[in-house]
Description:
By secondary structure, the protein is mainly alpha-helical. The chain has helices at 15-28, 32-47, 49-53, 72-80, 82-90, 119-132, 138-151, 155-177, 198-218, 224-230, 235-254, 260-271, 280-286, and strands spanning 55-61, 64-69, 100-105, 181-182, 189-190. The strands form 2 sheets. A 3-stranded mixed beta sheet has the order 1-2-3. Helix 7 runs antiparallel to helix 8 (155-177), helix 11 (235-254) runs antiparallel to helix 12 and helix 12 packs across helix 13. This is DUF721 domain-containing protein.
Amino acid sequence: MKHKGGFMDRKLVEVSKIFETSLLDSLFKNNENYKLFILQKSWENIAGSLLAKESFVLKFVNSVLFIQVTNSVWKNQLHMLKKDLLSKINALPYNFNFTDLRFVVGSNFVKRKPFLSIDKVNKNNNLLKNIHSADLDEKEKNQILRWIDSHIKNDDLKEPFKDFMLGLFKIRKGELLSSYTPCFLCSALCPPSKKICVLCENVLERKKKHAIVIILKKKPHLNYNEVNEIFPCSFESFSDARNMLISRYKDKIFKNHDTVDEKKFLLSLLIHKPLQNISDFEVNNALKYIPRSKF
């Protein structure tokens, strides 16, 4: 049967039931961080307000739940209620099936927030938000405006340049307020966790790959461990440099611009065999299936 709008007649279901039967089961009920969060939030209702002030759900390992307690007196009290607490926990509608409760005394009792995989993203977003929300005071604004008046003679450019400079200095001030520090190489500001800015990291990485390419051009048969002894580098840098050379010589073969020595070089890169031990016959036989252009 169809409604006037042309849609099939469907049975209405409450949103809460859809959430409970599908999303909650698939996403949350099997998520350990979410389970720990639920246990921590439910602990006061399970243990009572008095005991909850002196204890805290610490973690769980497989089917064992660990409760942190402020001292041995409260530990003994909770131990006497262990069976009742365990049944209340397993009665929660979150697929809990704990078989044991263990109580540990913590000298520094701290309620730990549950960790979520998105916490790092939120932290970075908050950092960027703080950086872009910094405001310049009147003195700082006036200094920028005076500089613009003295250096920008075209009146049509003054307004857009003013907006650009104010925005730029707001970000700069926000970075300083967020504990950004100068890059060791170029003095650009870096996040607190870094000592070198992204641009300098990229430059250093390119220089590393270039150094590896020079080594492989002299001895193309070397593997990662052998190159790493000559020039310490990551496997990723070595692999990128080697693949770059392989692609370069394959491209020469495809365009019919290759020589016998270049084909030997390519084979040495591929099989890690010294150049002097590779014969012309071996080269032609091994590389005969590499595609070539007909033009």
